[in-house]
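Provenance

Sequences were taken from public entries as deposited. Structures were produced by running a predictor on each sequence independently, with no templates supplied. The record for Hydroxypyruvate isomerase family protein from Azospirillum isscasi is shown for reference.
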Amino acid sequence: MRFAANLSMMFTERPFLERFAAAAAAGFDAVEFLFPYEVPAERIKAALDAHGLTQALFNLPPGDWTAGERGIACLPGREAEFREGVAAAIAYAKVLGNRLLHCMSGIPPDGLPDGVEREAALALYTDNLRHAAAACAEAGLTLLVEPINNRDMPGYLMNGTALARRVIGAVGAPNLKLQLDLYHCQISEGDLATRIRANADLTAHVQIAGVPDRNEPDRGEVHYPYLFEVLAGTGYRGFIGCEYRPRARTEDGLDWFRAARERSRQAAR
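Predicted structure for Hydroxypyruvate isomerase family protein:
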């Protein structure tokens, strides 16, 4: 198992660029974060290199985050902005070296509509993904879609693994894959071991957090040591992104991480 610390949620006791050193000191060899665009790519790359870290992934620009936007791929009239965001994300990835980019679907203007309106939002989302996947393919990158639960993000369009499979199939791009966040999946669907196995053919990145409170993964209702075995059994060899909110100081809640690394080392012997 290879773990990536999510620096948008972990080590937040420090300024952003100081979190790289903290992640490396804690034993992580990779990082991820939501959005890099407020920091020059060269400064992030310098932090990665200084601490021997791999950049796992980050998200395309989400629109106006402070105004509640959570991606613009399904928002009509924003197509030009979306394409500019794709180009910006690819430019950052070329500097940082990650091979994965996540595209947030967004929340339709009227929340999560039914019928014709929902299908129109999905059609626009699919068209935008088709463009983004083609641009990513030219750069040697893989584009990801991630189902996010509607409790944490009400009205979010991409909200289930069945829908993700439908959209990925409709786009038809070999470099469009699934980002399987087991925290969101447990809240939306449950039956995690079955979901992992059923979607192993499309899964390119996995994320974890404790359920229901999104704290450390050794808290709550999900038994991650078992799920790590399930993931390994499917042949998954990508990173596991640690996208959770520590209950206190990040380093004080990493017993689960040390235990998981030790189990992985023993299994590899």
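The domain at 33-268 is CATH 3.20.20.150 (TIM Barrel).
The chain has one domain: 33-268.
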